[in-house]
Amino acid sequence: MSGISKLLQDLRALDVQEEAIARRRAKLTRAVVEEAGGVKAAAALLELDPRTVSRRTRLDDFAMVVYRNATGRVDDDGRPFGETGGAGDAVQRAADARWWRVDQQQRPKIKLLVVVFRGEVRRIWRVLPDRPWPPKDDGTTFVEVPVEDVPLTAEEVREHYPDLGLNLGDERPMRQGLIREYLALDSTPQKEAQ
């Protein structure tokens, strides 16, 4: 492994560790609030403002879950979308990551891109932090989600995102008219988008 590859791998490992620490901090803060009997009592114990304690109980990180039912289609620009039929990670990555309307303020909170095909979780991509979300060059508001080169394995999902509540191969039925939704990474209620 070259020097730069090792450094990049080490940085990715730190990103994963920081995410895990943030999830653990939110979970422990919620436990303190529960044991103390509420936010005000926990704030007094922690010597913090109740608003700070409340904010620390929420992780606010999400997985963007996208639903697909098309196989091997090509759009007007020649870009494949949907399932690419084993064309390789790079082609499938492009098909999964492009083109989505994602609010600019929500982008830093999205940590995973989960692809569901015909009711089954097929791929889970880690979103790269602090990377630009390249816009489509046609003047629309569509962007490409900056994901890693290869999707996560089921083992990586279990290890790094234990509270996600889904993994590769799990059933996730598509609801009529829903093309994506946002699922909290810390088991708090989900947000939906159409």
Protein described:
The chain has 194 residues and is α+β, with helices and mostly antiparallel strands. It is 34% helix and 18% strand. Strands 5-4-1-6-7 form a 5-stranded mixed β-sheet, covered by helices on one side. Helix 1 packs across helix 2. Strand 4 and strand 5 form a beta hairpin. It has 5 helices and 7 strands; from the N terminus they run αααβββαββαββ. It starts with a helix and ends with a strand. The longest helix is centred in the first third of the chain and has 34 residues.
Strand segment tally: 7
- Report low-confidence residues grouped into runs of 5 or more: 188-194
Structural class: alpha+beta
Largest sheet report: 5 strands, mixed
Fraction in beta strands: 15-25%
Shape: globular
Which series of helices and strands comes N to C? HHHEEEHEEHEE
User: How many distinct helices?
Assistant: 5
Distance between the termini: 43 Å
> Using only CA atoms, what is the Rg?
19 Å
Mean pLDDT: 82
Strand order of the largest sheet: 5-4-1-6-7
Helix residue percentage: 25-40%
